Amino acid sequence: MASNSKKKVSKRDVIIKEAALLFKEKGYGSASMRDLAERVGVEAASIYSHIKSKDEILEEICFRIAGEYVSHISKIEDEKSSYTDKVKAIINLHIRLMVEDAASVAVTNNDWKSLPEPKLSIFKTLRKGYEARFAKLIEEGIAKKEFAPMNVSVAMFTILSSIRWVELWYNPDRNITEKELEKDITNLLLKGLKK
Amino acid sequence: MASNSKKKVSKRDVIIKEAALLFKEKGYGSASMRDLAERVGVEAASIYSHIKSKDEILEEICFRIAGEYVSHISKIEDEKSSYTDKVKAIINLHIRLMVEDAASVAVTNNDWKSLPEPKLSIFKTLRKGYEARFAKLIEEGIAKKEFAPMNVSVAMFTILSSIRWVELWYNPDRNITEKELEKDITNLLLKGLKK
DNA sequence: CTAAAAAACTAACGTTCGTTAGCTTTTGTG
DNA sequence: CACAAAAGCTAACGAACGTTAGTTTTTTAG
Predict the structure, then answer these.
(1) Alpha-carbon dihedral sign for residues B110, B115, B121, B127
(2) In-domain check, residue B142
(3) What pLDDT score was predicted for residue A3?
(4) How many domains does chain A have?
(5) What is the CATH number of the domain that holds A106?
(6) Residues A143 and A83 sit within 8 Å (Cβ to Cβ)
């Protein structure tokens, strides 16, 4: 019988998804291809029918997530809204990505340092660019008196990293919805920013 | 007699300090004993004159940091001060530890998952206990109307993880002092908490 | 149904890993 | 100075690692 009805999820995607879970659990350096193979239900060597190397998996995870951030911040910059709403949109973006794809976000946060050159340098540049654009929004918000004067880097990094805990804590069974989570975190962080 | 706890910095301490830097840089699983030996200026096998295993180094780092947190929160609980000041004291504790021993704190945050059982379970219990005590302070602060009503877990984890970025960013050469850093972060987070 | 393409398997490669054994050198103490 | 303890060295072990080669099975397409 036909095993695929429509657009099927490729085995490659299954491998990368499972790898994200594994890397999150054990850390990239401590996770082996044989661990991964077992989870996928296949011999270790068979994985190489779908991917070129272990490094390639990490690259794919990190750059997909980085791409999500970068593509969304462009939209946010272009919106005709207050800086408060722009920052709110960034916070919501980070929470949504974390909730929707916790494993990949966690791996990107924790294991990007294991990217091999030259991908490591490219990733760092991407991240630095994203941070610079976020910082600029905060800076302009301060200039327009929407936010209180403060060290822009401190504000930005505090906001960015304050969302990381969600990875360790959130799971859909908890009696708090994504919406409530967003509301509470956004409120907590925005009050601190406001003038 | 062993010159362990006397005046001089033992080689064992040097090894563990260097290991913290190495583990922070590459991640525990990706760092090898030969990497570590090279940094210490010794052959890999010689390290085993001072420590029992690679795992033991990770344990020592994680439990020393965990101990710092636990011992300080007892003092903070006992102080006769407002809940605002208690939370402020916890934030300052986290910032100070991060600035004073960035590498060990980073390793504890990133690599505790690699602790071997039964140490892993013990560590988790320690951390859960610490979090429960911190949460209780926030809860009481809300009850006493010092803080606005909100989800206690969300507030606690947001505060706890918001300080982690300092590891990636802070270095003594930056033109911001630890005091300024403390002031800005504390202000940002406390305003969000306040009623 | 057939044949090619894709994906799985077994086996093994060369490396690197954490660690041990056994010997030599350095250091601290009386 | 004597000499034991501490700390270093070289060599090597077995295990695990990422990965490749070669073969067989499964899936896909005409």
Answers:
(1) negative
(2) yes
(3) 36
(4) 1
(5) 1.10.357.10
(6) no
